[in-house]
Amino acid sequence: MTETTFYTNHFIKQKISFLFIKMMNGLEHDLVANYIQSSLSLATWYRKDSDFANPLLEELFLRRLFYNLLNTINDATKCPVLRRICLNQIHEPLIALKHYYNQSRTGHKHFLLLQKDLK
Questions:
Q1: Ranges 22-31, 33-42, 63-72: which has the least confidence
Q2: Are 53 and 110 in contact (CB under 8 A)?
Q3: CB pairs under 8 A, 24+ apart, for 58-61?
Q4: What is the tens place of the pLDDT at every residue in 40-78?
Q5: What's the pLDDT score for residue 23?
Q6: Average pLDDT score over residue span 77-96
Q7: Which of 36, 37, 59, 63 lies closest to 48, judged by CA?
Q8: What gap in Å lies between CA 114 and CA 93, rounded to an integer?
Q9: What letters, b where the CB count within 10 A reaches 16 and e where it falls short, cover 62-89?
Q10: CA atoms of 11 and 40, how far apart (whole Å)
């Protein structure tokens, strides 16, 4: 198994676990932490200075993480503990996106739109 396949498989497993949790089981913090870590790892894999540089994929994984956390925060059908954990952790993809957008001239505009969505 190649390293790319490992990162992708791990990300998909964590994403499925995160998106389809409905009830509280005491593992919410680990679930959110694993999902965030797998998403950030996959985005890092495609960073500009890596061997597999692809800025569009890097932005895609970071934005997807941000909006999945944001949607979970706003979803009243999700358990309150999970929503609170997502609210406490949403700064991680936001910081990664800020770093990503600081590398382009129009990035500040994109970052302001993300902050507006957060409010």
A1: 22-31
A2: no
A3: 58/100, 59/97, 59/100, 61/11
A4: 988 888 887 777 778 888 889 899 999 999 999 998 888
A5: 64
A6: 90
A7: 59
A8: 11
A9: bbbbbebbbebbeeeebbeebbebbeeb
A10: 9
* Alpha carbons within 13 A on the beta-carbon side of 67: 9
Phi, psi of 15 (to 5 degrees): -65, -45
The per-residue pLDDT of the chain, averaged, comes to: 84
Helices (H) and strands (E) in the chain, counts: 6, 0
Q: Would you state the structure tokens that stand for residue 59, as one six-digit string?
A: 């932005």
For residue 76, give the DSSP letter: T
Of 85, 82, 81, 93, give the one whose Cα is nearest residue 117.
93
